[in-house]
Amino acid sequence: MKQSAQEIINNPFLNKGTAFTQAERDNLGLAGLVPSYIQTIDEQAQQAYAQYQSKTSMLEQRIFLMSIFNENRVLFYHLFGQHIAEFMPVVYDPTIADTIENYSELFVQSQNAAFLSIDEPDKVESILKNAAGDRKIRLIVVTDGEGILGIGDWGVQGVDISVGKLMVYTAAAGIDPSEVLPVSLDVGTNRQSLLDNPLYLGNRHERVRGQRYEEFVDQFVRSAEKLFPNVYLHFEDFGRSTAAKILKKYQQDNVVFNDDIQGTGIIVLASVLGALNISKQKITDQVYLCFGAGSAGAGITSRVMAEMMQAGLSEEEARSHFYMVDKQGLLFDDMTDLTPEQKPFARKRSEFANANELTNLEAVVKAIHPTILVGTSTQPGTFTEEIVKEMAAHTERPIILPLSNPTKLAEAKAADLIKWTDGRALVATGIPTDPVEYNGVTYEIGQANNALVYPGLGLGVIASTAKVLNDQTISKAAHSLGGIVDPDQHGAAILPPVSKLDAFSQTVAQAVAQDVLDQNLNREPIADAKFAVANEKWVPEYSNLD
Ligand SMILES: NC(=O)c1ccc[n+]([C@@H]2O[C@H](COP(=O)([O-])OP(=O)(O)OC[C@H]3O[C@@H](n4cnc5c(N)ncnc54)[C@H](O)[C@@H]3O)[C@@H](O)[C@H]2O)c1
Ligand SMILES: O=C(O)C[C@H](O)C(=O)O
Ligand SMILES: [Mn+2]
């Protein structure tokens, strides 16, 4: 059906603003609806970037960039592609945490998201259909907003994380932005300040739990599959009590991915492999301590443990290298409040002479002498100087990864970790960190954020038409990030830089697609993984509309 000039200009997937060609202006009824000078996309991008630079806070910068996103997706991604490392912290983490906390106050428009309400489960299918319009949806990022980053329950306001994660998919891996759908499952919120806020835009009741919740999620998954067959379902920032359960329920038969559990597992394994490449040590010699044993903590621990088993250890041997600390202290198998994901890693009190004293991180570090310390606790500043020095006293190159987001929640700052260990620590952080100068050496700090892997993983899965996403493919994704950094450069980062995100997303995607083909998990015949990935890549250039 031919669209009217108004429909085109108001459609962010079609709008070109001042870049409509003369022929398009003449043939589509657009003449005179934009000023007469015809700009190239680069002229538009330059002008937009100049305006962007005039904004003084990251929040204002983000709001400005989102106004372009709202109007013109091609221009937004063209600009994003030109400034990827600079824009990542603005459009994504950490600034996204501010827009989530203030979503209702800042609301301008829905950004093509689908808002599904637990109070109207019968409308799930029709809402998804309406949100997609005539677009073919191949990727959904869905959240119920219960565990947003480390800032907790933000109800419907969490939809920004779905929008934000999808922006990174396109900027990093070239996923076609017209083929994606952000989804909010609005099941209520337990944040009283939102329930009391007259501006709050979501359902004003407590979070629904149990069977009604599960049926609602199921209704969503079934409707999405029905409307968009083979759609890749990315689950983001669900709560600790639901995230792993949902993943387990659907991962055998559907193409589902939990970013906090699996994406974080991949990036941390890649970080550890990168660090060991620098220290020239073996993974099987490491002692791993997880601080904050929730979705991310448990997901990472099981990924690193699988790697130890791949390296030749038995399950029992591998397990003996892992320790988990949560609110209770070191997790022991006699505790009655362990989650199913924590249980396999809980220790026996009989292993320690002072088991009852191991109720805090410092005591545990003293007792077990970890070589790898990963923070997913949401507790800022908990990797203290004493703890880090104690760790560094027993290992030459301590691997320390404070991953809690956003910035205000990080367990430590990279500069402190480098200083406290006299430059010996191998560090990566959840949020972007500037290089650290210490004793004449520049230490590059990698960003151990799942954004470095989920775009390439998704592209690989979609391009290869995978039926499911299994553990083997996930392991291949983690390994594919190696070899990009020069490990012999003093102060080298343990992960590749975000400035090369688009290039290494292709590398990840190719490794993933190849593995899908090797396992015969592709739905459609594919001759060449590399070609399939390249072929799938969307480029932010205007297409001809006339
Ligand atoms: N860098 C990344 O890519 C990445 C990915 C996922 C999550 N994260 C971050 O990790 C953090 C946790 O996320 P999640 O999804 O696992 O959340 P979660 O709620 O599932 O887990 C948090 C865990 O920390 C524990 N905790 C709370 N207070 C503690 C304390 N004082 N001492 C020890 N443990 C404590 C909680 O009991 C819970 O088990 C968040 O800040 C999130 O931003 C980072
Ligand atoms: O969103 C991020 O920056 C990473 C991660 O998924 C998180 O929940 O913190
Ligand atoms: Mn997350």
From TrEMBL:
(S)-malate binds at residues 405, 449. Transmembrane segments: none annotated. GO terms for cellular component: cytosol. Residues 69-251 form the Malic enzyme N-terminal domain. GO terms for molecular function: malic enzyme activity; malolactic enzyme activity; manganese ion binding; NAD binding; oxidoreductase activity, acting on the CH-OH group of donors, NAD or NADP as acceptor. GO terms for biological process: malate metabolic process; malolactic fermentation. Its EC number is 4.1.1.101. Pfam families: malic, Malic_M. SUPFAM superfamilies: Aminoacid dehydrogenase-like, N-terminal domain, NAD(P)-binding Rossmann-fold domains. Divalent metal cations. Prefers magnesium or manganese. It catalyses: (S)-malate + H(+) = (S)-lactate + CO2. A divalent metal cation binds at residues 236-237, 260. PROSITE patterns: MALIC_ENZYMES. The active site is at residues 92, 165. Its cofactor is Mn(2+); Mg(2+); NAD(+). Residues 261-517 form the Malic enzyme NAD-binding domain. InterPro entries: Aminoacid_DH-like_N_sf (IPR046346), Malic_enzyme_CS (IPR015884), Malic_N_dom (IPR012301), Malic_N_dom_sf (IPR037062), Malic_NAD-bd (IPR012302), Malic_OxRdtase (IPR001891), Malolactic_enz (IPR048182), NAD(P)-bd_dom_sf (IPR036291). Belongs to the malic enzymes family. Homodimer. This is Malolactic enzyme.
